[in-house]
Amino acid sequence: MLQTTLKKTFTCSGVGLHSGLPVQVTCRPAPANTGIVFLVETPEGQQRINLGPSAVMATELATTLGNNNASVSTVEHLLAALRGLGIDNAEIAAQSEIPILDGSAEPFVQGIRSAGIVSLPAFRRVLRVTRPVELKDGNKHISVYPVNVPGAFRVNYYIDFPHPAIGRQGLSLDVTPEKFLRVSYARTFGFLREVEYLRSKGLARGGSMENAVVLDDTKILNPDVMRRPDDFVRHKILDFIGDMGMARLPLQGSFSVACSGHAFNNRFLRKLQEEGALEEVTLTASEQAPKTPKTPRRTFLPSIEDSLVLA
Ligand SMILES: [Zn+2]
User: Fold this and answer.
1) Is the pLDDT of residue 4 over 90?
2) Of 22, 54, 162, 186, which residue is least crowded by CB atoms under 10 Å?
3) Distance, CA 89 to ligand 1 centroid (Å)?
4) How far away, in angstroms, is 104 Cα from ligand 1 center?
5) How many whole angstroms from 84 Cα to the centroid of ligand 1?
6) Which residues touch 287 (CB under 8 Å, ≥6 apart)?
7) β-pairing verdict for 22-28 and 90-94
8) Ligand 1: centre distance to CA 117 (Å)
9) Residue 42: what are its φ and ψ, rounded to 5°?
10) How far apart are the C-alpha atoms of 229 and 215, rounded to whole Å?
11) Is 262 assigned a catalytic role?
12) pTM of this prediction?
């Protein structure tokens, strides 16, 4: 299985979720073994941020990556798109925030598909989970088991929100470039009282009824931005792919997740690394690079068979 990168450069422009100010991100091809690196504009010039569990600095509202010199917020949907579509190497030139766009990974998927994906003359490297690991905290729970299929990343996700519009939802996904499209379009969601609290702290200024599903105590306030009733669990899987995508290489393992969020996901990723449960392996089997889906995605609707709405 060969490493991949983008065929061409693409740029997405929009507003930052935190600041509400215009920002843009440019994703460029990169040589084999570069990984995914962020090049962040600062007053002192461009600063490089490499991926790794400890590069996650904050998880309130969205995930912020950084080091002593620079930080970049709201990286999770872009990282989910890059990992989900099997991009091993890319340079991400960014400002202090990645644009929130429509609140899903869909615009990044469109950007990657329009740029194209090419193979590189080097075998893919992954971090293989070597033994079962579990983390629990209240109703939050993540466990992972090793899998022997090269590069396989499986997620079984369950949520239980005491809200009539959400309730219990579960979904299993064997994350491949094709199946990633079953979650990539699901928008982020939030509760009105939390949005009001965040706004009072000067956060979420770029959040709107167009880029988030907003709920009050009894209903969805903007149901027109929903694409399926279980968009909530689909977005949670999208976030999980992005949060596990913070590892320096793609992960190989089978994950079960209940009622998690960005902070708990990052705690789990740190635990995997700290406990030495990840082993770098090179996938030498000769396989093609992941295929880019060809049909226009505007008409795409996910099939129902992979979905299980429990509520
Ligand atoms: Zn999200």
Assistant:
1) yes
2) 162
3) 22
4) 7
5) 14
6) 1, 2
7) antiparallel
8) 24
9) -135, 170
10) 13
11) yes
12) 0.90
Rounded percentage of the chain residues whose pLDDT exceeds 90: 79
One-letter amino acid for residue 88 of the chain: D
Catalogue the long-range contacts made by 209-214 (C-beta closer than 8 Å, 24 or more residues apart): 210/102, 210/103, 211/17, 211/100, 211/101, 211/102, 211/103, 211/187, 212/103, 212/187, 212/188, 213/103, 213/187, 213/188, 213/189, 214/189, 214/190
Q: What is the pLDDT of residues 240-275, one digit of tens each?
A: 999 999 999 999 999 999 999 999 999 999 999 999
Determine the pLDDT at residue 285: 64
Residue with tokens 């490089």: 48
Tell me how far the alpha carbon of residue 106 lies from the centroid of ligand 1, in angstroms. 12
> Which residue in the list 18, 77, 235, 262 is annotated as catalytic?
262
Q: Which of 36, 31, 60 is nearest to 49 (CA)?
A: 36
d(CA 292, CA 174): 17
Those residues with Cβ within 8 angstroms of residue 8's Cβ, 6 or more apart along the chain or in another chain: 29, 115, 116
pLDDT value at residue 309 = 38
CA-CA distance, 279 to 126, in Å (whole number)? 8
Question: How many helices (DSSP H) and strands (DSSP E) are in the chain?
Answer: 5, 19
pLDDT of 176-232, one tens digit each?
999 999 999 999 999 998 888 888 888 788 888 889 999 999 999 999 999 899 999
